[in-house]
Design brief:
Two copies of one chain form a homodimer. The first copy, chain A, has 527 residues and is α/β, with parallel strands linked by helices. The first copy, chain A, has a domain of 191 residues: Aldolase class I (TIM Barrel, Alpha-Beta Barrel), CATH 3.20.20. Helix content of chain A is 38%, strand content 19%. Chain A contains 18 helices and 21 strands. In chain A, helix 1 packs antiparallel against helix 5 and helix 9 packs parallel to helix 10. The first copy, chain A, is globular, with a radius of gyration of 27 Å. The two termini of chain A are 44 Å apart. At the A-B interface, helix 1, helix 5, helix 6, helix 7 and helix 8 of A face helix 1, helix 5, helix 6, helix 7 and helix 8 of B.
């Protein structure tokens, strides 16, 4: 990877959990720091939003990680800071020889990274990011990798669900003020990958080459009123300055009694000047009802194309509910519900950028193989249950498509396996020994390997895709996903299966590693 | 404020919602950009964690905001980016004269900022941050202010609750891998202010002058086993390298059957060398039960001071539950529960740094006064209810202490008021006209103004306190808070009251601003 000087401590190589560094020193001291290993990054369960659970996730964050890993290295200042930390006994915690190694070779330029591309649909247990290379840097990378990818997957997934419930109408990401500090940028990026069309976050939007979007705040209208003017004076000032982008916030005083009529008046003035108004924004009250009533007023005034932007604590469930209410309420006012829905734009804030009610993704980073005496040795860590026990070894993942072109399962197998050569595929359930599925080769239209090699021993071998490519990947993957899996509530469970070879390897390792039955009561109590 | 060149777009002055800039241009065009205004930042409700709600919050984030506001300004690159954005009609959205102004005066060096100090206990409706100065920069600052303070308050509050449920035992912040990307740093900072004693986040910890803390990962033990060794080999290697900081993770293989006995063996070896082991960490299973059993084993081996670090999705409720179970289970194994609890250390990750189940604080930033014809004119924005209608005008806040020295109420009043001069204070309920409380002056031991002026017209007039001072402020405030308010579940409601003068002003402005009853159906429907 290209090497740059390390940044400030807070965003440089010290952006890591402290134990990564103490463990790295231990590996250095016992001569294991350069030992080739493999870590898999994956998540175990779909996000659970309390009353409903996701049926799929959308990958995001890899680009941010790759950029970080390429540009960061331990600098003299970092090493000086570490060198000054004392042990409890008062001596330095880190020895000079280790710090010298950290300065020279503690960066990530020796690692190879394979990953599922950003924007792709992903499922539990499937390795999303696979890191291979010397033990010490691969271990140190864990904190940043989990930090950068887990969050963005959570947001990209939420954005995809919101875009789905919004019936593909435009979605604007407005969450900066409730984002977790500096995460506003990574959150906006992930939202744009997952389903948001635009963001109000000016800096990151411009950096990604997307025009930032926004409307206006209540304080604008309030200010004009406080200075002795009226709502319409604020609207006129806005229309004068932005005649081609005139979108008016109509709920500051009284939406139907004042806001919409005033907006209509200003829109008529714009029309006389040959300009086409953009629309209105509703930010409070019964959004579905106010949408229908406002649409009727705008129609009557001859502005059937004026958009209606909705905002106020929206998420996929609220949007679904608003649309459902519009469908039943529009005809009462003589409107075609589809025409009303076609003019909607959704401004989504807090609940997207914080992925509220499932504010983190439990992605983990597990050691799955170690190079030993010239061979890769698969490793396993027993856990409370077989579901939680990571799948060992160097693996491949394939996505199988049925004859309709829909994704039917993700299949985990071992490197070297080729599911395409079998006339019948056995798809093992990942944790239940007695459950499997037999699929004939002719039922499968395509077998697609999911992991792409991005970095080989520090060298970029495949460029991380631009934003638009990640969005295209997301759209294509969602098209190939069964409707039942995309359902917002109680979705079909997508199959993530194993080959028999991987299943057998896992069982063998579990049997070999498990302590004898009389070793202690703890294990049984935990099961 | 000191001026530095603007940073990269993502973290520089473009870290703002786009509408702030389009509104600023409007203010510029109509000549209002320099008009003195006041914005109040406050929150309306305590965080609600689903099954329980907070009874107080802890302020944090101000230091981060002040540092940002002082160091950031629009640079040529920012202005060039904005200048290239087209309107829908194709012409530039931003005019050259506005961009020139932005470059010259669009920074925050003209603003005055008063605020409740970091670490102080805060309550709903109380202005936490008050910004006064020219309209355009005060408006642009909104996004960064809300972004930086809302999140840190959420985390500092959670940290205080966790520290409380942990009975003041050490709390370690371990959440970097589930934090929202770059927010890991601000989150760790807020946790340290609110109640965490240390963090595993190396960079921010060192920057704040606190030694970072950590233990070891399962992968360390797993690696030794994979290479043909055993758990105890990993423990020994760790003890050899860190004889004065030996803390061993004992749940990789079998906690009671292998982990604790092996740890005891290694601790005995350390003791022979004259070293004192630090303790063990439990990261899975029935933590309370395993704590009691491990404590018994450590006691028996002569290590009654060895710490037991607990981790695994902890939050205040789980910690409370673990301690409750230890209290009932320790005597069964012949142990004094208090002695067991005294050796506990809590490692808290996801649920602290994401403030899980209340992952954002709904802090808002509202225009409360405008300078007009040489006088401050209070402003109001009507909302769905009086509870949601911001308190108008330039206000002061006092905290009243009773004769025990406990905080009895926060009192909002108007600038120029002095509650100390009255022999009887009338504390008005903030939304119920018929509810008030009369307090005699002699019942009040102290009347403390809560807002501190930090910045006057861009000049720092009071330095933001160092981390240790904020922690001292938090400890002192929590000591002065009634036990009932600190209760984790169903806390007493702390009184936030108004003076009669502020109450009367608010009612007058509401009456003046409210549309006539027949103006539309919308208002009534919203009420």
């Amino acid at each position: 990877m290209r090497k740059k000087a390390g940044g400030t401590p807070a965003f440089g190589a010290l952006f890591t959990d402290f134990y990564q560094l103490t463990m790295a020193q231990l590996y250095f001291k016992v001569g294991l720091h350069g030992r080739p290993v493999q870590f898999d990054h994956f998540f175990r369960e779909y996000p659970d939003y309390g009353s409903h659970q996701a049926g799929y996730c959308v990958n995001a964050g890899l680009g941010t990680l790759l950029e970080w890993a390429r540009s960061v290295r331990f600098c003299r200042k970092d090493v000086k800071i570490l060198g000054a930390l004392p042990s409890r006994g008062g001596k330095p915690l880190f020895a000079r020889d280790f710090l010298r190694w950290l300065l020279a070779d503690g960066d990530f330029s020796s690692l190879s990274i394979r990953a599922v591309p950003e924007g792709r649909v992903i499922h539990p247990q499937v390795p999303i990011t696979v890191v291979r290379g010397p033990l010490a840097p691969a271990q140190i990378l864990e904190s940043a990798l989990l930090n950068k990818i887990n969050y963005q997957v959570a947001v990209a997934t939420r954005a995809a669900r919101i875009k789905f419930s919004a019936r593909n109408r435009p979605v604007l990401e407005f969450g900066m003020r409730r984002a977790h500090g500096a995460a506003a940028d990574e959150g906006a990026r992930a939202a744009l990958i997952g389903g948001a069309d635009f963001t109000s976050n000016t800096g990151i939007s411009c950096r990604l080459g997307i025009p930032p979007k926004g409307t206006q705040a209540h304080s604008l209208i309030q200010l004009f009123i406080s200075l002795g003017g009226e709502e319409i004076d604020a609207f006129r000032a806005y229309a004068d300055l932005y005649p081609d982008d005139c979108l008016l916030l109509v709920d500051t005083v009284d939406t139907l009694g004042s806001g919409v009529p005033n907006a209509v008046r200003v829109f008529e003035e714009l029309r006389k000047k040959g300009r086409r108004p953009l629309g209105i924004r509703l930010d409070s009250g019964d959004l579905a009802h106010l949408t229908v009533r406002s649409a009727a007023m705008l129609d009557q005034a001859g502005f059937p194309d004026a958009a209606i932007v909705l905002s106020n604590q929206l998420d996929e469930m609220l949007i679904w509910q608003i649309i459902t209410q519009i469908v039943s309420e529009a005809p009462v006012y003589g409107l075609d519900p589809d025409r009303v829905i076609e003019r909607l734009i959704f401004g989504v804030g807090t609940r997207l950028i914080t992925s509220e009610s499932a504010s983190s993704l439990g992605g983990v980073y597990k050691l799955t193989a170690v190079r030993h005496q010239g061979e890769w040795r698969p490793t396993i860590k027993l856990s409370d249950s077989i579901d939680k026990t990571p799948n060992p070894g160097n693996k491949n993942v394939w996505r199988l498509y049925d004859r309709r072109g829909k994704a039917m399962a993700d299949l985990l197998g071992l490197e070297g396996e080729d599911p395409g050569v079998h006339s019948r595929l056995i798809l093992r359930h990942p944790s239940d020994a007695d459950t499997y599925r037999v699929v004939r080769r002719e039922e499968i239209s395509r077998i697609e390997p999911l992991l792409q090699e991005y970095v080989r021993e520090g060298k970029e071998v495949f460029p991380p895709p631009a934003l638009e490519e990640t969005r295209e990947a997301r759209r294509a993957d969602l098209d190939r996903l069964d409707d039942g899996v995309k359902r917002l509530v109680n979705p079909h469970i997508y199959h993530v299966s194993m080959t028999s070879r991987l299943w057998d390897l896992k069982q063998e390792l579990i049997a070999r590693t498990r302590p004898p039955l009389n070793a202690g009561v703890n294990r049984e109590e935990k099961l």
